[in-house]
Amino acid sequence: MRFARMLALGALTMLVGVHLVFFAIRAWHVLTFPYPLDYGEGPLLAQVNHLRSGASLPHLYGDPAQPPYLVVNYPPVYLIVTSLVAPLLDWTLPGSATTLLAGRLVTFCATLICALLIWRLAVLSDTSIRRTTPEQSGAALVVALAFLALPIVREWSALMRVDLLGVCLGLWGLLLTRRLSRRAAIPLALSLLVNRRDPRRAGGSACLALVS
Length: 212
Fold this sequence. Notes:
Blueprint: H1 2-31, H2 41-52, H3 57-60, H4 77-85, H5 96-123, H6 134-149, H7 151-156, H8 163-179, H9 186-191, H10 199-211
């Protein structure tokens, strides 16, 4: 039985390793391409550039029928983080290309942190075990890396999109909940507001996360 488990884990590791190669190639291609590649990148690029030009958040969420005619679908967490990272890259690329790269790097870093958090959650899955064995840690690592092998994660891992930052904050809230207490679920509840278009649904999900 132990041999069968090791054989299955080895096969899964090889499969995940192959997918990680494609993950790295995809990320490199996206990060080095200076123009939007996804339908969601253009609006976010315009919104962050508007913030960087000196506009306030209330103005950003103003009437879309008035200049600068922006339709903002999401709360400002991703926009603020990207606008803070972009000035650090101003020396690398000119104009909007810097903002686009900053947004993609925010998503890419959030994706990698997701894998790290999944690994930690997998290691902590059995609270009755105080110390994990190398075999358990290795299996948890494969599970975490398998997240990067998911097609949707591979495709969005380096795009200027809010989704994976929301997933990252949600996983961080879950980890805090497991390690600390239910009160630590507050980041999880707040993360549900990051990428929800309907605030009523987000509020209900946040309350459910706190009481469950």
